[in-house]
Amino acid sequence: MERDNINRLMSGIIIVKFKRFNIFVRPFSVIDKTVSDVIAQEAYEDAFFDGVLTNDDMIKLATQNGWWSEEKEDKLKKSQEDLDQMKVDYYKKFFSETTRNFIKRSIDDQVKLINELHEEKNLFFDKTCESLKNYARTTYLLEKSSYVNNETLLDGEVSVYALLKRYFEGLLPDEKIRNVAKSNEWRVLWASSKNSSNLFVPSTHDLTGEQVSLISWSRFYDNVYESMECPRQEIIEDNIALDGWAIQQQREREKEQKQRDAEKMIPQSAGNANELFIPVRNQKEKEDILSLNNPEAKSILKSKHKQLTEEGRVKEKDLTHVKNTIQMQCNQLNSKGKR
Predict the structure, then answer these.
(1) Neighbours of 141 (CB within 10 A)
(2) CA 20 to 30 Å from 225, out of 97, 124, 215, 309?
(3) 209: helix, coil or strand?
(4) In which element (H, E) is residue 308 found?
């Protein structure tokens, strides 16, 4: 099956089946794409001046009428963040089958929730200027690139609307393209090619969306295999686990970068000071500086904040963490004195 998809992706052709014939949709040419951009922009402007809402206007209208809300927007963002963390947890617990399967079910539920929120948010987006713009572009391209039985240009054989629907149904899901990118058959072809565009029938400028996705995933797997912390093959074969690994790697890189940026802000005269106060200009600089604190220091900051919030002004000697430090030092001195 992967071999069939490889041939399909390399050719760039999508075959749309009807009862009496097949329609071959060839890769869109650069010239046709250029013309379609002009037609699409005209469709957008016509719709806009006819009073059709834009995507932004539709969001405002949906919010005003209670179809959508800032709370749901926050929930959607939080749900995506939670999904990323679930993938990291899945990766970390991959070799514990029971835990892994439990997290997998939670991930499935989370993906379902996110899809439902997206559907709710985009319920009326098929009636916006942007939607009409995309429709005009795609229908023009299909009319210029569709051939009956791969021989004659489509000319009234079937409605463009029917072709459009079948065309989108025939596109490969990103998950299938990803599976092609990591398959042995494709990896051999990919590794043997000096230039990725040589693998496809059209030139680089005519690459289809599916081909661009395949190249992107192929380079992603190149980076995975070349990583100094390349995961085991079982992880690579599992898309969720590898996503978790990639998210974890990205977080570690961002953390290291924040620490490097924050360290540049520390004055050279600071020496080995126990505490150092550094003025910041914005929230990002604040977060970067705070990231330099180790877990113990973060715990002390949290204790200070809580005590100051509850008691107001507090002398340094009365701070909880200072008392704990003094008590610990006294215990150590008493312990040495008994020896």
Answers:
(1) 21
(2) 97
(3) helix
(4) helix 295-311
Cα(145)–Cα(25) distance, integer angstroms:
6
Dihedrals phi, psi of 320, to nearest 5 degrees: -55, -45
Please report which confidence band the pLDDT of residue 3 belongs to, taking 50, 70 and 90 as the band edges: confident
Task: Report the C-alpha gap between 34 and 145 in whole angstroms.
Answer: 14
Which pairs count as long-range contacts for 263-271, CB under 8 Å and 24+ apart, including other chains? Answer: 263/292, 265/289, 266/292
Count CB atoms within 10 A of the CB of residue 80: 12
Q: Kindly list the domain boundaries of the chain, sorted by start residue.
A: 297-339
In order, the DSSP letters of 29-55 are PHHHHHHHHHHHHHHHHHHHHTTPPPH
Has residue 197 got a pLDDT over 80?
A: no
- Spatial contact of 186 and 217, defined as CB atoms under 8 Å apart: no
Q: What is the pLDDT of residues 66-107, one digit of tens each?
A: 999 999 999 999 999 999 999 999 999 999 999 999 999 999
Taking alpha carbons only, the member of 77, 9, 65, 3 closest to residue 213 is 9
Q: How far apart are CA 169 and CA 15, in angstroms?
A: 11
Structure tokens at 124: 């009326």
Q: Cα(143)–Cα(163) distance, rounded to whole angstroms?
A: 9
Please say whether the beta carbons of 25 and 32 come within 8 A.
Answer: no
At 274, list the tokens: 């126990």
Tens digits of per-residue pLDDT, 162-178? 899 999 999 999 999 99
So what's the pLDDT on residue 20? 81
State pTM to two decimals.
Answer: 0.78
